[in-house]
Write a structure and sequence with these properties.
This protein is an alpha/beta fold. The protein folds into two domains: 40-169 and 328-343, NAD(P)-binding Rossmann-like Domain (Rossmann fold); 174-323 and 356-372, Dihydrodipicolinate Reductase, domain 2 (2-Layer Sandwich), CATH 3.30.360.10. Helices cover 37% and strands 21% of the residues. It contains eleven helices and 15 strands. The chain has helices at 6-18, 24-35, 53-65, 82-89, 123-132, 147-160, 174-184, 204-209, 223-239, 326-338, 348-367; strands spanning 44-49, 69-75, 96-97, 113-116, 136-139, 164-166, 191-199, 245-251, 264-270, 276-282, 287-294, 297-301, 312-314, 317-319, 371-372. Helix 3 (53-65) crosses helix 10 (326-338). The longest helix has 20 residues, at 348-367. It is globular and about 55 Å long. The protein starts with 5 loop residues before the first helix and ends with a strand.
Length: 374
Amino acid sequence: MSKLNRRTFVKQSTLAATSIFGSEASIAAVWSKRVQNLAKPDPVKIAILGLGSYATNWLAPAIRQAEYAKLTGIISGSPQKYPSWQEKYQIPDANIYSYDNLEHIANNSEIECVYVVTPPGNHAEFAIRCLNAGKHVICEKPMARSENECSLMIQTAESVQRSLQIGYRLYWDPYTVTFINSMRDKEFGGWRTMETGFSSRPDDSNFLRKKWRIDRAMSLGGGLGELGVYCVQSAFYLAQDYPTFVEARSWTRRTNIFKEVPEHWEWELTWPDGRKSHHNSGWGEYSHFINMKTRDGSMRLEPAYSYSGNKGYTPKGQLILQNIFQQKLQIDGQCLAIRNRRPNITSGEMGRRDIRIISAIMRSAELSEPIPLT
C-alpha cells in the first residue's frame, strides 16, 4: 500500500466494487498496469466450506493451481470426507472444522478466507459466521435466498472490514469478457434483440441425489437460482443498463418430482428505452445460449455459460479464443482483490442486484403480472 496513494486507492476501489454495468474487465486492465511493479503478494490461505462435487472437482484443483492462493483448511458436515481431502491436499487436523464449531477459525491464522460452496439456503448463515470470525468470504452464486439476506452479508463484511465476493467465474472467461467489452464500447452498435437461455434436464435420479435442488427452503426457485442467475447476469452486462420491469411465468410437467419449486421459468425484461429481452431457465429442457442482434449483425454464444468449450460469433465472424481454466483465474483474481492488488469485480452488491431480479421474477410468476424494478 505504501506505493499507492491511500485516498486514491480507496476512491478507485469503491468505484470498481459498485460498478454494475460490465466495465470490470477494463478496470482490471488499468489496475494491472498500476500494480505491476509491486512485490508479489503472499498466497491467500483458503478453507473450503462444503465439500460437494463442485468443490471437489473444480474449486480445490483451481486453488491448487492458483498462483495467489493456497488450500489450507476444510469445513464440512461430513466427517467421512476428511481423510481423502487431508491426504490429497496435506491439510492438518488443526485446520479441519465442522459446521458446529466453524467459529473457532477466528483463532486460526492459517485460514484467511473461506469459500462457501453449499446450497443457497444456508449461504447467508455460513458467510456471516465466517465474516464475524474475521475471515474474508467468497460465496458461490446465487448469493442468498433474498435481498435482505444479501444486505446482511454486505453489512457484516463492511462492519468487520473484510472482503465479500461472489463466485461469478465468467468474469474470467475470455468469451464473456469479449462480449462485455464489445457491448460496453458499442463495437457493433447497440443491441436490438436479446435472448438468453440456460436450462438443463438431468435424469430423475439426479434430483434424488441432490434434493436441495428442488427444495423450496434450500434452493432459490430450483433451476432459476442455480442456472437462471447466469441469464440475469448476462442481461446486465450485455444491455449495459438496468431494466425497469420484469414479467415472468413458470410451470411444471413432472409434478411427481417438482413438488416445491417450478420446473420451467420464462421472463421478459423491459429496459428504459422500451426494448424487451427474453430469457428462460429451469430443469425441464436444454438451452445454453446468448443470441443478440445488433446494428451491425448477430452476436451469439452457444454454449454460453460452460466451464470450457464456449463458442462465440460476432459480425466479424467466429471468435477463436484460448480455452482457459476459469476457476483458476477466478481464484487468482479474487485473491488479488483480497490483497488489494485488484478491484473486487464480483462484489456483494452485484450479487444482491441479481437476487433482486430473481426475486422479482418469482413474484411476477406468482402474481401473473409485471413487477416494476427499482
